[in-house]
């Protein structure tokens, strides 16, 4: 049975990340099972600033079909642990659009692969309610703990056009997602700026705080 880990003072957590910190000596190490280098870089930046080293390993099997992001992440973690027998994290993320009752959500990878950002913008033509959120479910799995869930969510809206920064940073739906109280889309932000507000950063910080306290 999945356990969801909540820590005290979660609201203030993003301030705990010191993006300008001197590199620290890291005694803790965890594997991130993913095939997505952008996701890996974002999580590495957070964990590294909190004294945890991570390695990227792409041994992910086929994801289960489910309309529940947490269930997909938990299943992927169990599957990956069966393959490599080492403490690890996996992450499943998705874009949830209010006007479409949360679609694409758990189907984000497929929707991005097929209709991409242009297709989403086309589907949203003439729709006034542009509210959307990004959700991240990180699952840690070790022999000792079993699956543990760390969640992060960022509210925002779908822009009218794709907007990328000069460095063409970001990936996936980044060019069409603008977090609340931000002038920029995720793709117009640097990795550090995205990590101050993103769903993934929130989940990664929760994981790192728990990991440092207990492991
Ligand atoms: P894994 O190997 O870790 O599964 P993935 O690319 O399949 O990597 P997810 O299943 O977590 O990643 O995410 C599904 C899709 O949602 C992903 O391919 C992107 O297109 C999009 N996505 C996820 N997180 C995003 C983010 O922070 N910014 C923009 N798009 C994102």
Q: Whole-number radius of gyration?
A: 17 Å
The strand count comes to: 7
What name does CATH use for the topology? Answer: Maf protein
Biggest β-sheet description: 7 strands, mixed
Query: What is the tally of helical segments?
Result: 6
What's the end-to-end separation, in Å? Answer: 20 Å
How much helix, percentage-wise, in residues? Answer: 25-40%
Bound molecules: inosine 5'-triphosphate
Overall geometric form: globular
Class per helix and strand makeup:
alpha/beta
Order of helices and strands: EEHEHEHHEEEHH
Counted up, domains total: 1
CATH architecture: Alpha-Beta Complex
User: Mean pLDDT, rounded to whole units?
Assistant: 89
């Amino acid at each position: 049975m999945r356990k969801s880990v909540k820590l005290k003072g979660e609201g203030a957590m993003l301030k705990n990340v010191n993006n300008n910190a001197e590199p620290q000596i890291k005694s803790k190490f965890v594997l991130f099972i993913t095939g997505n280098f952008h996701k890996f870089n974002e999580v590495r930046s957070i964990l590294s600033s909190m004294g945890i080293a991570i390695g990227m390993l792409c041994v992910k099997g086929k994801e289960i079909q489910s309309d529940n992001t947490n269930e997909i992440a938990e299943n992927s973690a169990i599957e990956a642990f069966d393959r490599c027998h080492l403490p690890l994290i996996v992450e499943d993320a998705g874009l949830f659009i209010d006007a479409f009752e949360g679609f694409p959500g758990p189907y984000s990878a497929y929707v991005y692969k097929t209709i991409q950002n242009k297709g989403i913008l086309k589907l949203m033509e003439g729709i006034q309610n542009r509210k959307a959120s990004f959700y991240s479910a990180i699952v840690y799995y070790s022999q000792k703990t079993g699956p543990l869930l760390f969640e992060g969510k960022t509210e925002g809206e779908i822009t009218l056009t794709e907007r990328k920064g000069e460095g063409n940073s970001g990936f996936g739906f980044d060019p069409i997602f603008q977090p609340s109280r931000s002038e920029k889309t995720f793709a117009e932000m640097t990795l550090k700026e995205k990590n101050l507000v993103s769903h993934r950063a929130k989940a990664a910080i929760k994981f790192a705080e728990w990991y440092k306290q207990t492991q």
